[in-house]
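Design request, tokens follow.
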């Protein structure tokens, strides 16, 4: 329960900013049929996102979302810092299969977290690709052999990039919450030791005192 509470407060203090959110122009043909460049990117589908600035160290969440049509959709991503030319290569992919019990909504989305993004001005190079799911029966294959088949159309997909930065107060509160159990246990232990010490002193028997005349506290003489 404590961990859930801490996670909730940390998420509550999360500052987010949408940097990129829009549709992807997928190539007209599946990845297996298009010509690839030397870098492994599809020639007619490479695009650049609008440039955006990062003011403080942060994390980026890149999410690929596509429609519910069967098949695979993927993107090769390159986060490029325009001033230094530093590049971070990433990849995302989703595959939808309409099987019994399949969670189509979960299959339609894929995300990757990019941490420790330094301040600077960035652009993302995007190279998408897609491939239909081949599920032809013998009868369907025979029908296609008797006549021309229609080329599959590309699915619809979009890319969303969100900046997420944790605020200092939420992190401080989370740290305090994590230290709270240890602090409570320490205080309880100290109070228990003090109570035990006081009880020991109260229950300890007192020795009889002897005055200068040789009488003990009960009025008898020492031999």
């Amino acid at each position: 329960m404590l961990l859930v509470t801490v996670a909730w407060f940390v998420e509550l203090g999360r500052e987010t900013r949408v940097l990129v959110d829009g549709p992807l122009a997928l190539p007209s043909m599946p990845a297996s049929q298009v010509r690839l460049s030397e870098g492994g990117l599809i020639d007619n589908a490479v695009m650049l996102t609008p440039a955006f600035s990062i003011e403080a160290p942060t994390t980026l969440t890149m999410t690929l979302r596509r429609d519910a049509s069967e098949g695979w959709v993927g993107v090769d991503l390159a986060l490029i810092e325009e001033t230094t030319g530093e590049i971070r290569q990433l990849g995302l992919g989703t595959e939808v299969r309409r099987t019994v019990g399949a969670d189509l909504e979960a299959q339609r989305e894929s995300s990757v977290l990019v941490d420790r993004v330094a301040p600077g001005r960035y652009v993302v190079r995007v190279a998408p690709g897609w491939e239909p799911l081949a599920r032809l029966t013998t009868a369907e294959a025979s029908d296609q052999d008797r006549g021309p088949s229609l080329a599959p159309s590309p699915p619809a997909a979009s890319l969303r990039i969100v900046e997420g930065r944790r605020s200092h107060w939420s992190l401080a509160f989370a740290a305090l919450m994590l230290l709270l159990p240890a602090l409570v246990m320490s205080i309880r232990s100290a109070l228990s030791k003090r109570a035990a010490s006081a009880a020991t002193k109260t229950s300890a028997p007192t020795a009889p005192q002897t005055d200068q005349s040789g009488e003990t506290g009960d009025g008898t003489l020492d031999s």
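Comment from the thread starter after seeing the answer: thanks! The chain has a mean pLDDT of 76.
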